[in-house]
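Changelog note: in this version the structure field was regenerated for every chain. One regenerated record is shown below for reference.
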Amino acid sequence: MAPDKDSGLIDIQSNHSVDETVEKLKGILQAKGITLFALVDHSGEAAKAGMKMPPTKLLIFGNPKGGTPLMLAAPSTAIDLPLKILVWEDANGKVWVTYNSPAYLEERHKFPPDRLANIAVVETLAKAAAE
């Protein structure tokens, strides 16, 4: 799916529930040796505050060997790193995997094009989790 030119976000429909997609993604990250820094359960936190929200979870992950060269080349990149994938359910019960387009991040932060491969893995990870 093409990124929204204004937001840089890419949405892929998942074939699984939010929890199943998150578990699948966690397994893929672990198998690839990518660090999962945090899992934010937005809907769980909303429930704790007495509010109802469809299942929505954010995974924050990365590898310093990939991210550090980007931040050295363009320090502002640090605002968008580590990488993130949002797994969420819409009002119709469809589950989506959303992430920042690597090309959008390259344009936003003006890091050298040869560094794009350092974060392009996010696309592969998102697609694999959604399958």
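Spot check on this record: Residues 18-31 form the longest helix (14 residues). The mean pLDDT is 93.
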